[in-house]
């Protein structure tokens, strides 16, 4: 066939693209590669044939004085005049070329490149493909396209345009464009998980708007279409523009445009793989600045070399936020930060990055999208008051709702426009915890202690509106344990630990976060045994299968099953495939009219599938960060934050699962103060002045990173003398507001009672066990019960523990041994003793094991998790 194409006339239509072949994507990978090779050879052959019929243009001779743009300007052999000329050449480099007629700006060529990247599995090979294209272009004589536009299209998830078009809405709009009663059919086809394929399928069959036979679009045309679409909000306007687009597209053109709208072009390549094709240093520069156009410009200036690309941050271009990785023990924290750390309250709000340029304000979310106006508009009034000496600024922080009478921070989820209206005595407050840019100077490379000093020197607190985050310097493990205890027992999300000497590293997880569900091997996490009530189709590589599941419990008072949470994490691919057959489901396609009478579910959560009979459905153990309130669910508004499937409970039936009554009790128990530390490792130690961390001051018995008002001018002078822009205005006089609205972590009565001063810069040595998850001093490895001495040693350790409010679940219960092969053995033995159980060969009351008549180990484990002694009858073997 390909030989026939080589002999054919120039006017004969030939295969130019793999996507011209119907069913190409269904072929085996080896077959696809063979066909791509044949297509490539055909194109090369036709190009050579065309060259023999064309007289080559004579190029002007290159002058010796000319140097390539990518030349090494640091060479000692280049004169100063040449150096200046080269620098000017770099500055004049055009990232964008506007010749839309160039084949290198063809949208069809873009699709071809994406097809090559899709078929290549190795990331280094993907980079080589892109680099080769940008060097040689379509014809092999040099790239003449718009490099920046190509990179932007290859990375649609980086510089996201906001279209507000979900998959079903796209089906609705294109059903209008294509004509006919096809919407329901499109939605049904959408269950395969790829809206682009659905649109392409119905475009091919469209009568009202048939596809154009030949691809003529340029990248610039598509870019203008997408820019216009991002500005439209009315459905009629969107439909009119999509109709215009569809009339200009082939089937494959429209499919790719829909992929661009969904920010997923299916090439399995990220910023690193694409930018490495321009310059090995490009990705790091982009990661720090997110300024894609400037990174491309500098990379082109290096001529695809390996020179350094340095791009600074700037106003209106959001910076990737610095992140934190989980910290599961105090020991781990001090291994990471051996010289001490700042411990900051982990606010349970919404991460916001503020950019200020004169009187202009820009707010970006954690995902770098603009924040909805109702949450941040009022800050335009308070930010100038908080930063009176500042013209340009980038700060990082969290917005939360604060009770203006009690200073209490209101729970997560109250920032919504309707929820916020319910709290009349509350205000949205911006808690600032970092500064990346101040008055024209980037602070990314400055240590945290210096950045914090700048904040405290130049920021004036506007109570309940703009406040500094609560942060304390920590040098001792005991102090950190105390702060963790206080934070969790006060119902806060946890702590964030930071190195005082660290720079701000965009996108890097170099902070640590301590949360309840990370501690003690995860046993502090909240969990419940819930029944699978329904399921939803997945998207992407999970398209066409059930991969998101609706979990719930039974409400005996209404005799209906209520919803608790949606979960999609915890199953591997093999388990998901098995569940497609194991779960007995009935398809209702999110139709509220088909919801069975036994299910109590709100309309926005109606699933694609419902279980045929909840009494025969599977029971899964769902674990999350904490129980939370969510009005979208019908289980008395109780839900689970960050849920995941811990295990499938094949040993339980739906009757044995957590009921609504039990769920309410678990919710209430989880809000109580349950974490109590040993005296030996939990004392609150007061440090001496010579133990201050960088940027800290002493305020009475409290160490913090705020600067007293009387020292603010000195701090500003120190900052200005370091080379930063000076502030012409003088600071305000008068007493400064406290930086902590709720006085979190520092007002605990127990802390004052237990505090003691350490003299001569020494303190009691604290020993940590190798098991980093343990916050207790009991050695659970002794709980084998193999001899009386070991067991008695454990019980003596238990008697040494201080009096605490842990539930006495196992009072009077004596076991000879606990099975060491149990998955959570160490946590089990520790908790069994902490909850007043006893391990001894004498006076045994319960035999734990698998033989008939013995008690299943799950009885102890379930009681520990639920913090109440569960009925033992269900656990007798």
From TrEMBL:
Basic and acidic residues bias spans: 686-701, 709-731
Any single biological process term in GO: double-strand break repair
Skewed-composition ranges (Polar residues): 745-760
Gene Ontology molecular function: ATP binding; DNA binding; DNA ligase (ATP) activity; metal ion binding
Cited Pfam families: DNA_ligase_A_C, DNA_ligase_A_M, DNA_ligase_A_N, LIG3_BRCT
Keyword DNA damage belongs to the record: yes
Catalyzed chemical reaction(s): ATP + (deoxyribonucleotide)n-3'-hydroxyl + 5'-phospho-(deoxyribonucleotide)m = (deoxyribonucleotide)n+m + AMP + diphosphate
Domain BRCT: start-end pairs: 812-877
Keywords of the record: ATP-binding, Cell cycle, Cell division, DNA damage, DNA recombination, DNA repair, DNA replication, Ligase, Magnesium, Metal-binding, Nucleotide-binding
Region annotation (Disordered) ranges: 686-761
InterPro entries assigned: ATP-dep_DNA_ligase (IPR050191), BRCT_dom (IPR001357), BRCT_dom_sf (IPR036420), DNA_ligase_ATP-dep (IPR000977), DNA_ligase_ATP-dep_C (IPR012309), DNA_ligase_ATP-dep_cent (IPR012310), DNA_ligase_ATP-dep_CS (IPR016059), DNA_ligase_ATP-dep_N (IPR012308)
Cofactor needs: Mg(2+)
Gene Ontology cellular-component terms listed: DNA ligase III-XRCC1 complex
Residues in ATP-dependent DNA ligase family profile domain copies: 421-555
This protein's record includes keyword S-adenosyl-L-methionine: no
Protein family according to the UniProt entry: Belongs to the ATP-dependent DNA ligase family.
NCBIfam families: dnl1
Protein name: DNA ligase
Natural source organism: Varroa destructor (Honeybee mite)
């Amino acid at each position: 066939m390909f030989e026939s194409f080589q002999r054919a006339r120039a006017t004969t239509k030939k295969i130019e693209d793999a996507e011209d072949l119907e069913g190409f994507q269904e072929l085996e990978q080896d077959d696809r590669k063979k066909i791509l090779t044949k297509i490539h050879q055909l194109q090369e052959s036709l190009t050579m044939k065309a060259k023999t019929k064309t007289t080559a243009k004579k190029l002007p001779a290159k002058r010796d004085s000319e140097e390539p743009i990518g030349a090494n300007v640091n060479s000692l052999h280049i004169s100063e005049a040449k150096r200046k000329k080269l620098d000017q050449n770099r500055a004049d480099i055009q990232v964008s070329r506007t010749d839309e007629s160039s084949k290198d700006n063809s949208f069809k060529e873009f699709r071809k490149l994406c097809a090559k990247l899709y078929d290549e599995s190795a990331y280094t090979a993907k980079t080589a493909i892109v680099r080769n294209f940008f060097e040689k272009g379509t014809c092999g004589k040099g790239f003449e396209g718009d490099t920046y536009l190509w990179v932007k299209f290859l990375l649609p998830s980086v510089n996201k345009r906001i279209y507000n078009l979900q998959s079903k809405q796209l089906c609705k709009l294109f059903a209008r464009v294509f004509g006919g009663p096809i919407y329901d059919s499109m939605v049904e086809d959408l269950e395969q998980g790829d809206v682009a394929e659905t649109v392409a399928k119905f475009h091919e069959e469209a009568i009202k708007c048939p596809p154009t036979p030949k691809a003529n679009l340029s990248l610039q045309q598509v870019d203008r279409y997408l820019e216009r679409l991002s500005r439209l909000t009315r459905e009629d306007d969107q439909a009119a523009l999509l109709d215009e687009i569809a009339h200009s597209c082939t089937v494959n053109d429209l499919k790719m445009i829909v992929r661009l709208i969904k920010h997923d072009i299916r090439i399995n390549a990220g910023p690193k793989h694409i930018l490495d094709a321009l310059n090995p240093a490009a990705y790091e520069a982009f990661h720090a600045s997110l300024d894609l156009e400037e990174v491309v410009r500098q990379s082109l200036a290096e001529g695809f070399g390996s020179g350094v690309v340095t791009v600074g941050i700037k106003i209106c271009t959001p910076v990737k936020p610095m992140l934190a990785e989980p910290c599961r023990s105090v020991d781990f924290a001090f291994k990471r930060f051996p010289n001490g750390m700042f411990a900051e309250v982990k606010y349970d709000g919404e991460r916001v990055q503020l950019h200020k340029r004169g009187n202009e304000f820009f707010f970006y979310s954690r995902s770098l999208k603009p924040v909805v106006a109702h949450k941040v508009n009022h800050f335009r009034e308070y930010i100038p008051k908080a930063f009176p000496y500042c013209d340009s600024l980038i700060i990082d922080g969290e917005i939360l709702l604060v009770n203006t009478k009690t200073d209490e921070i209101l729970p997560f989820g109250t920032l919504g426009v309707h929820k916020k209206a319910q709290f009349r005595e509350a205000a949205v407050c911006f808690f600032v915890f970092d500064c990346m840019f101040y008055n024209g100077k980037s602070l990314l490379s400055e240590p945290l202690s210096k950045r914090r000093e700048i904040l405290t020197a130049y920021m004036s607190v506007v109570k309940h509106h703009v406040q500094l985050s609560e942060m304390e310097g920590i040098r001792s493990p005991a102090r950190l344990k105390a702060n963790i205890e206080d934070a969790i027992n006060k119902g806060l999300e946890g702590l964030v630990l930071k190195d005082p000497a660290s720079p701000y590293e965009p996108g890097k997880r170099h902070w640590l976060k301590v949360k309840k569900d990370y501690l003690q091997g995860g046993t502090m996490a909240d969990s419940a045994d819930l029944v699978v009530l329904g399921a939803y189709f997945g998207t992407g590589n999970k398209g066409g299968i059930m991969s998101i599941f609706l979990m719930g419990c039974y409400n005996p008072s209404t005799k209906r099953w209520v919803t608790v949470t949606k979960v999609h994490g915890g199953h591997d691919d093999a388990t998901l495939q098995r569940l497609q057959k194991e779960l007995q489901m009935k398809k209702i396609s999110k139709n509220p009219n088909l919801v069975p009478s036994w299910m109590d579910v709100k309309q926005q959560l109606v699933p694609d599938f419902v279980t045929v009979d909840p009494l025969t459905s599977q029971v899964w153990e769902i674990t999350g960060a904490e129980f939370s309130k969510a009005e979208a669910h019908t289980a008395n508004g109780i839900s689970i934050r960050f849920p995941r499937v811990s295990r499938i409970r094949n040993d339980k039936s739906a009757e044995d699962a957590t009921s609504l009554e039990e769920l309410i009790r678990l919710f209430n128990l989880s809000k109580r103060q349950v974490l109590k530390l040993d005296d030996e490792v939990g004392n609150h130690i007061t440090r001496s002045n010579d133990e201050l961390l960088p940027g800290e001051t002493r305020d009475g018995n409290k160490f913090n990173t705020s600067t007293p008002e009387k020292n603010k001018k000195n701090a500003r002078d120190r900052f200005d003398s370091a080379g930063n822009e000076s502030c012409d205005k003088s600071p305000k006089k008068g007493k400064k507001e406290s930086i902590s609205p709720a006085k979190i972590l520092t007002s605990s009565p127990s802390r004052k009672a237990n505090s003691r001063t350490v003299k001569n810069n020494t303190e009691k040595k604290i020993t940590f066990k190798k098991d980093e998850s343990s916050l207790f001093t009991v050695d659970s490895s002794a709980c084998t019960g193999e001899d009386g001495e070991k067991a008695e040693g454990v019980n003596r350790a238990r008697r040494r523990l201080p009096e605490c409010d842990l539930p006495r679940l196992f009072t009077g219960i004596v076991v000879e041994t606990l099975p060491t092969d149990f998955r959570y053995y160490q946590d089990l033995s520790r908790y069994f003793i902490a909850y007043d159980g006893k391990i001894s060969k004498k006076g045994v009351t319960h035999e734990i094991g698998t033989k008939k008549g013995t008690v299943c180990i799950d009885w102890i484990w379930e009681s520990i998790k639920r913090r109440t002694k569960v009925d033992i009858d269900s656990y007798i073997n």
